[in-house]
Amino acid sequence: MVYITAILANWIFGYKIFTQGLIQLGQPATVKVAANLVRLLAYNNKNMLQTGLIVGGWDKYEGGKIYGIPLGGTIIEQPFAIGGSGSSYLYGFFDQAWREGMTKEEAEQLVVKAVSLAIARDGASGGVVRTVIINSEGVTRNFYPGDKLPLWHEELEPQNSLLDIWGSASGSSPEPMRE
Amino acid sequence: MGYKFVILRPYCASPLTMVPYVTGTSVIGIKYKDGILIAADMGGSYGSTLRYKSIERLKAIGKHSLLGASGEISDFQELLRYLDELILYDNMWDDGNSLGPKEVHSYLTRVMYNRRNKFNPLWNSVVLGGVKNGQKYLGMVNMIGVHYQDNHVATGFGNHLAVPILRDEWREDLSFEEGIKLLEKCMRVLIYRDRSAVNKLQVVEEWVVQSIAKITEEGVSISPPYSLKTFWEFSAFKNPTAGAAGSW
């Protein structure tokens, strides 16, 4: 099966939305249109693709909208969507933590917390958290390195070395490598 | 569905294989005195995960028909597109005639059967009901093209859990209230016993009021989503070891 998420995304946005859509309509396509273009690819190639997608954005007609497009090519509008291998661990979390009408800051904190919880338990998740906020003002990207995320059960505060905990005759050890 | 997927040549261009991903469970339909009632829950299961709980699996088609689908939701959405086109062309004739439930059922049967013959099925079982010119119609089609009409139909687990109840308790002259109660009795059993059922359901109703073969009023209504109460306080559940001294 082809893991094609990035290739699909690039094609939809580069070609269909901007080239065809923007040129023909004279304005950016709506989120619904973008999601349906993705759905067409996912549905019509369901034999060859194994990719679950979430299309989210903002347009002036409907405001912020999220469309989930799981395996098979179903399209479903949702107030929030989760997917991917680590998402199994987040269904209960979102059932409890998600609320209608969160502010931008609350919502971003929620997703960062969610991804960090998934990283804690999913072997296939890790590294950094990157977020994108899309609203009437535009697109904002944020970056959270892995060592700045909260710690969960059975995780310990990272140290430079055991020597710092036990202490040593020659003082503390050097900082970890940068770059 | 009971059908295992058949891999003839996996991961290739020709769709000789199919497996459902996001699925809806049972749909139940009955005729009642004044029309048709169909019920379905709002769940979209992803394997054993109850992933989506707000999927509307009941839709009105044209002026006269109601469709309820179980099975792969993406294929149901595609079916709705086919039917949209069918109804559009029917309206464009602008000839005063409109496709009734019998015609829509026939169309769906042809679509499903032809796809089955090409080994590229729409992985659904659908209930198609409606009223036209005072005539009630209720039918079922599934992914292999099996189709029939009856006074009560069901898909999936509904065949095993609901149909026996309906065979026993259905009557020609059910009132609206009795029909709803009967459907809810069936849905409740499904909530208890079908692992893919979700306790959030919708009912659609198409009714016609006639007096001596003249239609005075007709219409379609879709209920808002609602949940049924369930009962779990059986003494056998509360004290499971009462009959087995020494057990815990």
From TrEMBL, chain A:
Q: One GO molecular-function annotation for this sequence?
A: peptidase activity
What span is annotated as the signal peptide, if there is one?
Answer: none
Q: Name one GO cellular component term.
A: cytoplasm
Coiled coil (UniProt feature): none
Q: Does the keyword Transmembrane helix apply?
A: no
Q: Would the keyword Cytoplasm turn up in this protein's UniProt record?
A: yes
Q: Which keywords are on file for this protein?
A: Cytoplasm, Hydrolase, Protease
Q: What GO terms describe the biological role, i.e. biological process, of this protein?
A: proteolysis involved in protein catabolic process
Q: Which PANTHER family match?
A: ATP-DEPENDENT PROTEASE SUBUNIT HSLV, METALLOPROTEASE TLDD
This one is known as: Proteasome endopeptidase complex
What species does this protein belong to? Carnegiea gigantea
TrEMBL record, chain B:
Q: What's the name of the protein?
A: Proteasome subunit beta
Task: Give the protein's function.
Answer: Non-catalytic component of the proteasome.
Keywords per UniProt: Cytoplasm, Nucleus, Proteasome
Asked whether the UniProt record includes Cytoplasm among its keywords, one would answer yes
Q: Cite a single GO BP annotation.
A: proteolysis involved in protein catabolic process
Its localization reads:
Cytoplasm; Nucleus
Return the GO cellular component terms, semicolon-separated.
Answer: cytoplasm; nucleus; proteasome core complex, beta-subunit complex
Signal peptide start and end residues: none
Annotated CDD domains: proteasome_beta_type_4
A Pfam cross-reference name: Proteasome
Which organism is the protein's source? Carnegiea gigantea
State the family named in the UniProt similarity comment for this chain.
Belongs to the peptidase T1B family.
